[in-house]
Design brief:
The complex is a heterodimer of chains A (about 260) and B (about 475). By secondary structure, chain A is mostly helical. Chain A has 10 helices and no strands. Chain A is about 85% helix and about 0% strand. Among the domains of chain B are: about 110 residues; about 140 residues, OmpA-like domain (60s Ribosomal Protein L30, Chain: A), CATH 3.30.1330.60. The chains are: A mainly alpha (about 260), B alpha/beta (about 475).
């Protein structure tokens, strides 16, 4: 009972923190330089991981799709099926999980470290709005970087699929890409990409909340880092269900 | 923050946005969004799942997308599907082009197919209506098939009733014919017996005549009688002369008659007679054809079929009689009921000829048979010699049980093996029954294929004939 109460209290704290992030995001001063720096850290430095993972996921998906579609003599549908799977779901979700692993842990540990070593208090004493400077910039950077990384993941995945497919069937690059995108509509492409901004917000907010409120020295920093990854991944996966349903509601055609 | 980092972030964001734009372009391009196009529409009672953004194909080529679907205002109205077609395909979209809703592959998405129009018809106008054909619906087809099946069922039920009544009538006719034949049989027999007696009597009479017995015999033998007859003949000649004169007089009378009105009457009578003759001929023809099919002939055929059935029944009855407790002792004692009806599994069953000892002689098919021009196996001269030797061995044993000929063949399918094995055994059976004057009912044939009855004693034996005698 006490645990449940504590959990609800914690969730309430997170919600208030998230509301504070949104409110502060739209009020000056905007820490553009810091945001750019965070985009560099979160986006650019994650790009190699995302591209490599995308190539691997794409090629594996292509191989599996081939073995299934071959039974029905529908090999020509491999690029289309792969693009559907990647663009609509696999790309955004895998990107979200990878970023939550790499970036969530980073934010949790960094802010947690700053909190336990009283660096945040030092910033406050210098009349710097530590929340705006440390939290909002990271969350905004996550929100901006996530769709960009998702686009990278999607293209890397299709490319990986092409490599796997061309080794088997010798399919041409132009044909493969044209076929991959021919059956997609804008409603299949834009909403799943845009929804990753929500993933970015979840990752940034959860990890920043855990780091910003870390207590208990080095042990508290470690706990904040671990919990950042675990909780942001869980929230992301659960929230994805709601987002997919919401997209189907907005674009009924994209469900088919 | 250093300038390099800013540059990298700029490049990263710009590059990713460019990729996103490329994706948008590829999708838009495949949906013909960046090509000049014109709008038209078509109306359908059922749209079978086509949606906004659905593909439009002109003569099989991707040509645009469905832009809007208008829902009808009432149940009698139709859905109006608005769609875009790229301008470059306009020349083949004519006013007689027909729009249909098709499925991409077996399970794919629905799309709108526009057939190319005729060259002598004007181009389809922008924002005009394209003719449409309602989509094919399996449900409708199933409904129609259901109706047809019901109709066929009804017809079949009617035909069945008629057929049953016809068959009953035929059965009645056959029974009547059977009765007739049964009734007539004693009469026919008595007629034949009488005919026999008559011919015997005739023979007797002729013999008597030849010997000069009786009046006719005397005619052949008596000279005085001959002279008397000759005189009578002379007198007859004279009488004939008189008749000839009378005939001449009659001719004159006839000529006179011809001049009178009697002749046309006679001619009419003759015509009537001709007509009657033709009618009689028709009647005869009908009778003949009736006896060919559906008439007497067919009744007779049915009667024969019935007789055949009766014989089969009789055969069954005698077979049943064999198993009757009065007779079965005899058959059990001799070890079998009917070798002709013996099957391979029955033969392999240890219950067959229980209590009998057996002696077997193997003969290889290479030693027994030679092949003719058609590839059929026939007993060779050497084979017959071998058989004689084998039978000498076999006939040493008491002849109180069956003699079985086991055919073996290991080549081809099981059916081919069975046939070849049986043919081999039958060839040997025909030869030994004739050659050694054996009772045919005691000599049986069984096709073993490639599987010997008792494997232990016949290792490696696959092609040929085994002669087995059962004795006590």
């Amino acid at each position: 009972m006490e645990n449940a109460e504590r959990a609800i209290e914690w969730f309430g704290g997170l919600s208030l923190f998230a509301g504070q992030v949104i409110r502060n995001s739209f009020s000056p001063p905007f820490e553009f330089t810091e945001i750019l720096k965070q985009i560099f850290e979160i986006g650019w430095r994650s790009a190699p991981l995302i591209i490599l993972s995308g190539l691997a996921v794409g090629s594996v998906l292509s191989m599996h799709t081939r073995s299934t579609l071959e039974r029905f003599g529908a090999e020509s549908m491999i690029p289309t099926a792969l693009a559907f799977a990647l663009v609509k779901e696999t790309g955004p979700l895998v990107t979200g999980l990878l970023v939550s692993g790499r970036v969530g842990a980073g934010i949790g540990a960094e802010l947690g470290g700053m909190r336990v070593t009283e660096q945040i208090d030092a910033l406050e004493s210098l009349a710097v709005n530590s929340f705006k400077y440390l939290v909002v910039t990271r969350v905004v950077a996550c929100v901006v970087a996530m769709p960009l990384l998702t686009v990278l993941m999607n293209f890397a995945g299709v490319l990986g699929g092409f490599f796997a497919e061309t080794l088997v069937s010798g399919s041409s690059f132009t044909f493969y890409f044209n076929t991959a995108f021919s059956s997609l509509s804008f409603s299949d492409y834009i909403p799943p990409t845009i929804k990753t901004t929500v993933f970015g917000f979840i990752i940034g907010t959860t990890s920043a909340f855990l780091g910003y409120n870390a207590t208990g020295g080095a042990e508290g920093v470690g706990r904040a880092a671990t919990q950042s990854v675990v909780l942001s991944s869980i929230f992301l996966i659960v929230c994805n269900v709601l987002l997919v349903k919401f997209i189907f509601f907005l674009y009924p055609g994209s469900g088919s | 923050m250093e300038t390099t980092k800013k540059l990298i972030v700029g490049m990263f964001v710009g590059g990713c946005l460019l990729l996103f734009g490329l994706g948008l372009f590829l999708i838009g391009n495949s949906n013909q969004l960046f090509t000049k196009s014109f709008n038209v529409y078509a109306e359908f009672s059922k749209i079978t799942g086509i949606q906004n953004g659905g593909k439009v194909r002109v003569a099989g080529m991707d040509a645009g997308t469905v832009t809007r679907i208008e829902v009808p205002t009432g149940p009698e109205g139709k859905f109006r599907i608005h769609f875009r077609i790229v301008e470059k395909l306009h020349p083949i979209v004519r006013q007689d082009s027909i729009a249909t809703i098709q499925t991409d592959g077996l399970l794919g998405n629905k799309y709108l197919q526009i057939e190319a129009g005729s060259s002598n018809v004007e181009l389809a106008l922008k924002d005009s209506q394209i003719q449409s054909k309602e989509p094919f619906d399996w449900g409708d087809l199933m409904d129609e098939m259901n109706g047809v099946v019901k109709q066929v069922n009804g017809i079949m039920a009617g035909v069945k009733d008629q057929l049953v009544s016809t068959l009953t009538e035929i059965q009645g006719t056959v029974k009547s014919a059977n009765h007739l034949i049964k009734d007539a049989t004693p009469n026919v027999k008595s007629i034949l017996a009488s005919a026999d007696r008559i011919s015997a009597n005739l023979q007797e009479i002729i013999d008597g005549v030849q010997k000069g017995q009786g009046t006719v015999g005397a005619l052949f033998k008596d000279k005085e009688l001959y002279a008397s007859i000759k005189r009578s003949a002379d007198k007859t000649e004279r009488v004939v002369d008189n008749i000839r004169d009378t005939s001449a007089s009659a001719m004159k009378i006839v000529n006179k008659v011809e001049e009178s009105d009697i002749v046309p009457e006679v001619q009419r009578s003759i015509k009537n007679l001709q007509q009657i003759t033709l009618q009689v001929k028709d009647a005869v023809d009908k009778f003949q054809s009736a006896s060919g099919e559906g008439g007497v002939g067919e009744n007779l055929q049915r009667t024969l079929a019935d007789a055949h059935e009766a014989m089969s029944d009789l055969s069954d009855n005698t077979e049943a009689l064999k198993h009757n407790f009065l007779f079965r002792g005899f058959f059990k004692k001799r070890g079998f009921y009917d070798l002709g009806a013996l099957t391979t599994p029955e033969y392999k069953n240890p219950a067959f000829a229980k209590g009998f000892k057996k002696h077997r002689v193997w003969l290889d098919s290479v030693d027994l048979f030679t092949k003719d021009a058609k590839g059929l196996e026939l007993l060779s001269v050497e084979g017959k010699v071998k058989l004689d030797e084998a039978m000498t061995d076999i006939l040493k044993f008491p002849r109180n049980g069956p003699l079985m000929l086991e055919g073996f063949a290991a080549e081809g399918t099981p059916a081919q093996q069975h046939l070849v094995a049986r043919r081999r055994a039958v060839r040997v059976q025909a030869y030994i029954v004739d050659r050694f004057h054996l009772r045919p009912s005691y000599v049986g044939v069984v096709s073993m294929g490639a599987e010997p009855a008792d494997k232990g004693t016949v290792v490696g034996f696959k092609e040929g004939v085994g002669i087995v005698t059962f004795y006590k």
